[in-house]
């Protein structure tokens, strides 16, 4: 999970998105939202789940379409590497996208929006 | 837990780089203490020459200032020379009595200038040229004295001489050899260099043996006497006759020293708690003095200090690309030659350009370049790869860039470019920006420049220019990267070839098995190695290896090309560029139905539908009901054709039918990079077969097959492989060539990149001369593409990866 349990609101107050298995391992799904635009929800090899605004800080590329490795994603447009945890570019590139709290409970993915 | 103590003796470039690498991978492991004999923090020693010449200040050449040490929690003892290592108590003792204990000790004591053992060597006014203090002494002397003698006609000596001349002194360079820089240059290049320096007012005394330095009435040096009895006035003498590894401290502690402090491939000395890096080290009998090998050592050392236990330093093949007082020089390998060697030379004394390549058995074994060094790294690459240059011999001398490089106005001399001139046309990076980044961020390698400025990181055609900028900005330290033995990426130390061999030998069929077997550093690779591994497994074990779509770039995962706004483009296959009213009507209907904004005819004779939303892709494919054009893949792209004998009054062969047959034959072929073919029906070559990976040209008596052409970043003309008689032979020879490429090229090599490494003769041997091997190659290709299911049809039917195209809502 992207942040510690303490900071998270109870899962019941978060929005139910999909089941964990509906996100491909080392991949992502896009969640369409009215308030925040598209949000990319990633799942890594250890079944950790992360959520970022689907917009690379560089030129706005859809991060959801990138290659996920470790705890990072490589943007499909110009290969910037973005930390899944906080949405910030790996140095020497600079810039961050917004990250969202996300949680898995009993195999269901909840997003804090 | 209490931190371990790491003490470093020596505060120079190699040692501090090791600390930087260590902090990067394991920032909290050690409590670090550094002893430096000089009163300064870490500076770029190579840039002392510009300081002496008055072009830069000390401040500008600092790499890590005192704040850096503080910010990283490193205790820094400046101006304290360590005089003793107590290996039993694990302590070091400095001259002033400071004692620090260690769990690990890192020796980075560098080197000392060699002082000629002649009478008068200790007189006031006699100095060496090694650090900031020496530089300051020279600057001071230049203010009050007139006659400078520099002993030593190597790089350092010449730079000292140039600096002193610029500071207003009369300078004579004394050299024992018949020509300057004899370890880097041959007689001709050295002569040109000497002439250009003489034009600047420097004087030279060659083949002179120094006998004695003579004191004047004030006790300061006043003259230099030679063994032949002659004499020159001298009130400043700079000795620049070489350096010796500084091993005194190690020796006094009983650590094994032979030339330098002897280390193994993990940079460990004979005392396992003590490591050593830099110029003080002897690795496999060699002491290095160039920055690039020292930085490689630093990286390996940091890795072991961090208990990672991987990474070996196996020595470096060095070449030098240097700039002596504004003149570009390059030298590598054996440039003098011998009885079994040949030489190719280009000599233009008026234009100030000289190039010599030394060849043996059709391979480059060394070379010297003066004035124009743009192609130095290319020659060095050919040298290290031991590549057969027989085929390119006639234009070897004109360099790699003589033809077709686009994106920087055909410039090939970085020095002559204005600061505002664009070097990297892909990312819009100007010369000034690159130079500034190199200076301010302390960059030393091409990789660094790519990361920080993006220059040369996209198409790579400006790499030669960026390398020149590095060479001229960081001084004599720059060394072209060693790509032959380059690891695939940061996740591993294995090369592409080693990974491939392991996948074959051990039948590795999925990513997990490969990463495990090859001890990958990362749990699931990175965006650069994953697609490569996926391809290597698929091409080595077709129908058995697991094709992991998450390890493919988005285009191959979505079977469409991602565009800058996140939409996709769809290019249906039109076999051989032939279409009909039915297909065109379907395309028109799809464009209307899905409101596709742009429809474009491609260079490969098909139609591109641009701006398709991802979620519409399966519907578009279903309605089109045409096969995938694979315009998005490292795979077969198009087979371009002319109309050929069916319609054309000049046509000799049915090129359209041949093209369609080839396209069907290769459908479903994944490859290291994209593959484009063309078939022309006569030598007028309207399908442009001369710039295709495989280009076929019909002549009256059959078909000529050309390979390795490319119309992209660099125009490459395809090379003639063979002439055959029948359609079946065209299929077999083309397929066999492509299969050899599929099996041997590195991922992301186009055919020309691979072909220029192995040589056309190699390909001919395997594909043309050896019929049995050709048939076997072709059979393996046919096996690989057997039963390939059209990916669009599968997805349109909702059989595969439906969720890849659907969005979720909240």
Question: Would you kindly provide a written description of the structure presented here, covering whatever features stand out?
Answer:
The complex is a heterodimer of chains A (113) and B (810). Chain A has one domain: 3-layer Sandwich (Rieske Iron-sulfur Protein), CATH 2.102.10. Chain A has a four-stranded antiparallel sheet with strand order 2-3-4-8, with no helix packed on it. A three-stranded antiparallel sheet of chain A has the order 1-10-9, with no helix packed on it. Chain A has a three-stranded antiparallel sheet with strand order 5-6-7, with no helix packed on it. With 113 residues, chain A is an all-beta fold. Chain A has strands at residues 15-19, 27-33, 37-43, 49-53, 67-69, 72-74, 81-83, 99-100, 102-105, 108-111. Helix content of chain A is 0%, strand content 38%. The relative contact order of chain A is 0.26. In chain A, a hairpin with a 6-residue loop joins strand 6 (72-74) and strand 7 (81-83). Chain A is built from no helices and ten strands. Chain B has 810 residues and is α/β, with parallel strands linked by helices. Chain B folds into six domains: 4-111 and 245-305, FAD/NAD(P)-binding domain; 126-241, FAD/NAD(P)-binding domain; 404-486, BFD-like [2Fe-2S]-binding domain (Arc Repressor Mutant, subunit A), CATH 1.10.10; 496-552, no CATH class; 556-624, Sulfite Reductase Hemoprotein,Domain 2 (Sulfite Reductase Hemoprotein, domain 2), CATH 3.90.480.10; 636-785, 2-Layer Sandwich (Sulfite Reductase Hemoprotein, domain 1), CATH 3.30.413. In chain B, 31% of the residues lie in helices and 22% in strands. Chain B has a five-stranded parallel sheet. In chain B, helix 20 (655-666) packs parallel to helix 21. The longest helix of chain B is centred in the last third of the chain and has 18 residues, at 727-744. In chain B, 46% of the residues are buried. The mean pLDDT of chain B is 90. The chains are: A mainly beta (113), B alpha/beta (810). Chains A and B meet through strand 1, strand 2, strand 3 and strand 5 of A and helix 17 and strand 40 of B.
């Amino acid at each position: 999970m992207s942040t510690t349990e303490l900071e998270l609101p109870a899962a019941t107050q978060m929005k139910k998105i999909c089941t964990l298995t509906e996100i491909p391992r080392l991949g992502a799904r896009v969640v369409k939202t009215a308030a925040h635009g598209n949000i990319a929800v990633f799942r890594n090899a250890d079944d950790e789940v992360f959520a970022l605004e689907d917009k690379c800080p560089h030129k706005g590329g859809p991060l959801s379409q990138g290659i996920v490795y470790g705890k990072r994603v490589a943007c499909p447009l110009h290969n910037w590497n973005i930390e899944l945890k906080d949405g910030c570019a790996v140095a020497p590139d600079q810039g961050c996208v917004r990250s969202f709290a996300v949680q898995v409970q009993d195999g269901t993915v909840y997003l804090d929006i | 837990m209490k931190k371990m103590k790491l003490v470093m003796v020596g505060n120079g470039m190699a040692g501090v780089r090791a600390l930087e690498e260590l902090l990067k991978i394991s920032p909290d492991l050690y409590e670090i203490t550094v002893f430096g004999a000089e009163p300064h923090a870490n500076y770029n020693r190579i840039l002392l020459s510009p300081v002496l010449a008055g072009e830069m200040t000390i401040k500008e050449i600092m790499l890590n200032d005192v704040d850096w040490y503080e910010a990283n929690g490193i205790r820094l003892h400046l101006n304290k020379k360590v005089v003793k290592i107590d290996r039993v108590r694990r302590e070091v003792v400095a001259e002033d009595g400071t004692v620090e204990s260690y769990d690990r000790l890192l020796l980075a004591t560098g080197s000392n200038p060699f002082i000629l053992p002649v009478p008068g060597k200790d007189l006031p006014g006699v100095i060496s040229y090694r650090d900031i203090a020496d530089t300051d002494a020279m600057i001071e002397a230049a203010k009050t004295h007139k006659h400078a003698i520099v002993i030593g006609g190597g790089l350092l000596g010449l730079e000292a001489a140039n600096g002193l001349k610029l500071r207003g002194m009369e300078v004579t360079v004394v050299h024992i050899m018949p020509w300057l820089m004899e370890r880097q240059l041959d007689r001709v290049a050295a002569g040109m260099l000497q002439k250009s320096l003489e034009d600047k007012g420097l004087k030279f005394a060659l083949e002179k043996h120094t006998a004695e330095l003579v004191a004047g009435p004030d006790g300061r040096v006043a003259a230099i006497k030679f063994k032949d009895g002659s004499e020159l006035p001298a009130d400043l003498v700079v000795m620049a006759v070489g350096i010796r590894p500084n091993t005194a401290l190690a020796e006094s502690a009983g650590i094994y020293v032979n030339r330098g402090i002897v280390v193994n491939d993990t940079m460990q000395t004979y005392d396992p708690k003590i490591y050593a890096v830099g110029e003080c080290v002897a690795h496999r009998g060699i002491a290095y003095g160039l920055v690039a090998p020292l930085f490689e050592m630093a990286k390996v050392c940091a890795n072991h200090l961090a208990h990672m236990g991987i990474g070996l330093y196996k020595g470096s093949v060095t070449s030098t690309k240097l700039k002596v007082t504004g003149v570009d020089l390059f030298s590598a390998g054996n440039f003098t030659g011998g009885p079994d060697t040949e030489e190719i030379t280009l000599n233009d004394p008026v234009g100030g350009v000289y190039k010599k390549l030394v060849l043996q058995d059709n391979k480059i074994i060394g070379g010297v370049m003066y004035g124009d060094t743009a192609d130095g790294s290319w020659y060095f690459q050919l040298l290290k790869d031991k590549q057969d240059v027989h085929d390119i011999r006639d234009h070897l001398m004109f360099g790699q860039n003589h033809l077709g490089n686009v994106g920087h106005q055909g410039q090939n001399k970085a020095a002559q470019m204005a600061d505002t001139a664009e070097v990297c046309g892909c990312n819009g990076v100007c010369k000034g920006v690159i130079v500034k980044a190199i200076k301010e961020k302390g960059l030393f390698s091409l990789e660094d420049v790519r990361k920080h400025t993006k220059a040369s990181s996209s198409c790579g055609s400006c790499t030669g220019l960026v390398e020149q900028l590095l060479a001229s900005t960081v001084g004599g330290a720059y060394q072209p990267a060693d790509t032959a033995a380059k690891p695939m990426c940061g996740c591993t130390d294995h090369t592409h070839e080693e990974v491939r061999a392991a996948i074959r030998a051990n039948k590795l069929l999925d990513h997990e098995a490969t990463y495990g077997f090859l001890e990958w550093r990362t749990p699931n690779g990175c965006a650069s190695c994953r697609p490569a591994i996926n391809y290597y497994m698929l091409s080595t074990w077709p129908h058995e290896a697991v094709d992991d779509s998450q390890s493919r770039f988005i285009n191959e995962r979505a079977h469409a090309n991602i565009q800058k706004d996140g939409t996709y483009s769809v290019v249906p296959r039109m076999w051989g560029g032939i279409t009909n009213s039915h297909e065109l009507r379907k395309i028109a209907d799809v464009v209307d139905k899905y409101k596709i904004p742009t429809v474009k005819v491609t260079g490969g004779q098909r139609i591109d539908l641009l701006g398709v939303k991802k979620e519409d892709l399966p519907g578009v494919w279903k309605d089109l009901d045409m096969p995938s054009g694979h315009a998005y893949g490292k795979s077969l792209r198009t087979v371009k054709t002319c109309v050929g004998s069916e319609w054309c009054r000049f046509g000799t062969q049915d090129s359209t039918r041949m093209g369609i047959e080839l396209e069907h034959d290769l459908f479903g072929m994944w490859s290291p990079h994209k593959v484009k073919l063309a078939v022309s029906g006569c030598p007028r070559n309207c399908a442009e077969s001369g710039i295709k990976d495989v280009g076929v040209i019909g002549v009256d008596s059959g078909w000529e097959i050309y390979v390795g052409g490319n119309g992209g970043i660099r125009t490459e003309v395809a090379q003639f492989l063979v002439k055959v008689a029948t359609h079946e032979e065209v299929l077999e020879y083309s397929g066999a060539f492509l299969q050899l490429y599929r099996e041997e090229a590195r991922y992301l090599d186009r055919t020309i990149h691979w072909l220029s490494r192995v040589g056309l003769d190699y390909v001919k041997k395997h594909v043309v001369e050896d019929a049995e091997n050709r048939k076997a190659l072709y059979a393996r290709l046919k096996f690989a593409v057997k039963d390939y299911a059209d990916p669009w049809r599968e997805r349109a039917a909702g059989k595969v990866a439906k969720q890849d195209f659907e969005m979720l809502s909240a």
